Amino acid sequence: MQDVSHTSAAGTVGERERAYYRAVLSKDSRFDGVFFTAVKTTGIYCRPVCSAKTPRASSCLFFSSAALAEAAGFRPCLRCRPELAPYALQQNLAHGVWQKIVAGALNEGGIEQLAQQVGLSSRQLRRVLLQEFGVTPVELAQTQRLLFAKKLLQETRLPMAELAYAAGFGSLRRFNALFEQRYQMTPGSIRRGAKLDGEGLVLRLAYRPPYAWDALLHYLQGRAMPGLEAVEINADTGKPFAYVRSVRLHGKTGWIKVSHLPERAQLALQVSAGLAPVLMPLLAQVRTQFDLEANPGVIQAHLQGDTLMAAQMARNPGLRVPGAFDTFELAIRAVLGQQVSVAGATTVSGRLVQKFGDKIDTPFIGVSHHFPDAALLAQLPLEQIASIGVPKTRAATIQNLARFSLAGGLQPQLEASQAQMVAHLKTVVGIGEWTAQYIALRALRYPDAFPGGDLGLQKAAALAPETRITEKQLLVRSQAWSPWRSYAALLLWQSLS
């Protein structure tokens, strides 16, 4: 099938609508989250992959966001559930602000506070979102809260008051009133029709298939920090099947478990009860860590012209870039990985966690601590940090990075380019180009980040076995892979295993 995700965006409105309708007819998963189809005869809007009977083209309207569809008076489909759709993220200011709203930025703070965080006035913030999404920040946040509440109604047994609070509503009365006003049905009626799987707090997160789950788990398994996180092994097959870790988020503590539901093109996220109040930001971080917004069709279409990339993509279709649950954790892990093997870095990172992290009880073997606070690492004597088995210079870099983080240095700057953010990271004494690019690749989610100085990448890109090309040669060759060089890097690393 033709890749219309590029051609439609560049064409006229009529061409784009025809391309979108073809995607609806074929239930093309590449467009899931890219647009929503509203049906004028029913007043309902759906994902392109909805299993319901396809409406006539004359009955369809297409919206770039759920908020825009709801602002036009349409209700979400109960079958395909628009709140499950992967996001259609772009690297621009408006989508950066939108990500913060999705994570609940307006649930506690107001417009002025969010505007200050992103370096805009409240008027500029409103204008940026109106231009990109056609709705105001408040309308965008309200739609997100209602859809998140609908998700919790259909997937959990949370009491209504807890559910309303977790979705960002200040009171149960206001939640009930807004939900019924917007969707013309009560929260109770949604819950009565829900089919819940199993016990406990389990949420589902959709992605655009294919998804190379086994390859992602294999990557995380080799780099998991003992005590903080682990990859569980299936006793029958001997293969990795789930990722588990401790969580400390906005003053709440607990644990999560992430597993795969390939028949549904979803991940299952099991959450400990103590994390219920922070479900909205928690889900945003898990989606980022597991790269659920990636559009593998678009990435493959760009990279498959390179024979090396094409061969590796054929072996691992749907390869994702493993992200980070927490930027500071990943940055410290990157520092510990400087000039040592992956196994060596894993060992010392486990010592750091177990020596300086707070203890937590979890049901998982190997998950017993939280990651150490930046404030603690910033004030520890260098000798104590070095006692985990690293040189004092490396211990000093850890301390420098902790202080940098406390000063807000690891917070993504929405208007900063990748080059600017890499340069900003390199102002930390002890962080060079490789470390900065690795942090940009995995933690800051720049899709074009590329640590060209990595010896493994230089070896994987060489044409002759047991040789490697130079960093300069690799960077020249990598230009053809831009703007998806992060995925090219993962494909090259994967080819070595």
UniProtKB/TrEMBL annotation:
The keyword Methyltransferase is annotated on this UniProt entry: yes
Entry EC no(s): 3.2.2.21
Reactions catalysed, as given in the entry: Hydrolysis of alkylated DNA, releasing 3-methyladenine, 3-methylguanine, 7-methylguanine and 7-methyladenine
Top-level taxon in the UniProt lineage: Bacteria
Alphabetized InterPro entries for the sequence: Ada-like_dom_sf, Ada_DNA_repair_Zn-bd, AlkA_N, AlkA_N_sf, Alkylbase_DNA_Glycosylase/TA, DNA_glycosylase, HhH-GPD_domain, HhH_base_excis_C
Alphabetized SMART domains for the sequence: AlkA_N (SM01009), ENDO3c (SM00478), HTH_ARAC (SM00342)
CDD domains per record: ENDO3c
Residue stretches making up the HTH araC/xylS-type domain: 111-193
Cofactor list: Zn(2+)
Family annotation (PANTHER family): DNA-3-METHYLADENINE GLYCOSYLASE, DNA-3-METHYLADENINE GLYCOSYLASE 2
Name listed for the protein in its UniProt record: DNA-3-methyladenine glycosylase II
Organism of this sequence: Undibacterium piscinae
